[in-house]
Amino acid sequence: MAASGEARAGPGSTVCVLVLGMAGSGKTALVQRLAAHLHGRHAAPYIINLDPAVHELPFPANIDIRDTVKYKEVMKQYGLGPNGSIVTSLNLFATRFDQVMKFIEKRQTASQYVLIDTPGQIEVFTWSASGTIITEALASCYPSVVVYVMDTSRSTSPVTFMSNMLYACSILYKTKLPFIVAMNKTDIIDHSFAVEWMQDFEAFQDALNQEATYVSNLTRSMSLVLDEFYSSLKVVGVSAVQGTGLDEFFEHVSKAVDEYEREYRPEYERLRKKREKVQSQRQREQLVRLQHDMGPLAMDGSPAASGSTAESSLGPSALILTRGTLEEEEGQDGGQESDADDIDHDVTEKSHEEPAFQSFLQEAKLRYPARSNH
């Protein structure tokens, strides 16, 4: 069944699987099991690790954030705590994520699935700017699916179950991508009770009535809100330890890819075209400002019209560049005559030089007799 799900995605098409979840839910273990499952079907995935604080990886990562950013060095240099250092490391890595996209593009014919393991602290990736950048970069180029890993053994309480569902709902509307809830650790407890709570409102209310805590009242109110969320949610029970439920998991991934192509890709195409249109408009505005600064003479190579109208149409830079040559061009083009065109400049210069020369001769005559007498 998994083979049919993989074939449906199409040969050569790459599917990005973002694995999210609370700390201790088994994200890394699930990525390991998914990688082993795909290797067993001769469909080796491309694996990316985005957790800079993990000590050891149980799977070989093609791209590891630890090779680029040193988590402890970031903590020392910036004086941060563990969580702050993880956020900063992920932000630094996101600035070079365009290179990661190039690596994925080179491997898209060889690897059909790209598995992305995220940090243990879910809020670091989900609500940070770097997480948004990475998610949108992947979703704008490849079909992308968000997998929310839920610890089934710790969700037997209706209040804890509702907390997980609220977080899953917030991630769904934050990422705006096809969403799958993987109820992990079914080898410890079967996930049928959680599925029943999602499908039968009365069953969840009966379980909630056994809770005597104050927060149960809030949970009862929130359960009414999430009915619509449950109706369109893809849920699958898996075990990262035993490897059960993976065939059904890849069936849901295949359906999520179809959903992406049908509903999400047109939206991302629209956003991409809108972004390109904004960039093109910004470039045109910059070009208009540049033409205004340089002037039509420098940009077009055509001589400007003479007179005060031409000078006023030129920008400041154009007036500086053409200063000293406008008068010559006006004379050649036969432009408007200035008020000083009827003045004979040679006669004017002689009229200023003659009195000065006469004064010089008189002073020389007075000095010469004085020197001869001496």
UniProtKB/TrEMBL annotation:
Small GTPase required for proper nuclear import of RNA polymerase II (RNAPII). May act at an RNAP assembly step prior to nuclear import. Forms an interface between the RNA polymerase II enzyme and chaperone/scaffolding proteins, suggesting that it is required to connect RNA polymerase II to regulators of protein complex formation. May be involved in nuclear localization of XPA. Its EC number is 3.6.5.-. It comes from Varanus komodoensis (Komodo dragon). Residues 295-374 are annotated as: Disordered. Heterodimer with GPN3. Binds to RNA polymerase II (RNAPII). Interacts directly with RNAPII subunits RPB4 and RPB7 and the CTD of RPB1. Interacts with XPA. Binds to RNA polymerase II. GO terms for cellular component: cytoplasm; nucleus. This is GPN-loop GTPase. Belongs to the GPN-loop GTPase family. The lineage of its organism: Eukaryota, Metazoa, Chordata, Craniata, Vertebrata.
